[in-house]
Design goal:
Blueprint (H helix, E strand, L loop, with lengths): L6 E8 L2 E12 L18 E10 L8 H13 L5 E7 L3 H9 L3 E12 L2 E11 L9 H21 L1
Parallel strand pairs: 3-4
Antiparallel strand pairs: 1-2, 2-3, 4-6, 5-6
Length: 160
């Protein structure tokens, strides 16, 4: 489904039962500084998708429903998108691990992002770059990239 305001969604069903859903908003260049600036002559899309919510019925968790919803969202609806991004409560370790397995990386921590039960809670902004999109250069991004590269080299050598 897609609305005129750029919000789209997918649902997962088991028979008539709704077991999961994902909603996102497509926009041009509303990336909050998470996407590298256009370079001269660059043809990388500036379209980004912000994941508003992803939910799976408790009984269907760890059955691949959320992964499949994200996969379909990326393949069917975000083929020209250079960045998928979202926020996750900083204390939600399960969600952080899930999104990292799906190719997202922590871009930054945002203080007081959520208001839950009258309390302010911090969040992480997570990014998944696609179709030539890339992060802006910063010390934090360079350190994260170096750590991922080192880890990949280490694990590759350990597999031999």
């Amino acid at each position: 489904m897609e609305r005129a305001d750029g919000i789209s969604g997918l649902v997962a069903q088991a028979g008539e039962r709704l077991v999961g859903f994902v909603c996102w908003r497509m926009s041009a260049e509303e990336d909050e500084g998470l996407l590298a600036p256009q370079l001269c002559g660059s043809v990388v899309s500036r379209t980004v998708a912000y994941v508003l919510t992803l939910g799976v019925d408790q009984a269907w968790r760890r059955a691949g429903v959320a992964s499949e919803l994200l996969r379909r969202m990326k393949c069917l609806h975000c083929h020209g998108t250079s960045l998928l991004w979202l926020h996750v409560l900083d204390s939600n370790d399960t969600a952080l691990r899930f999104y990292q397995r799906c190719g997202f990386a922590v871009a930054r921590r945002e203080s007081d992002f959520y208001l839950i039960g009258g309390r302010r809670e911090d969040a992480y902004a997570l990014c998944h770059f696609m179709n030539g999109g890339r992060p802006p250069l910063s010390c934090e991004w360079l350190l994260l990239a170096a750590r991922r590269r080192f880890r990949a080299l280490f694990w590759a050598k350990g597999a031999d």
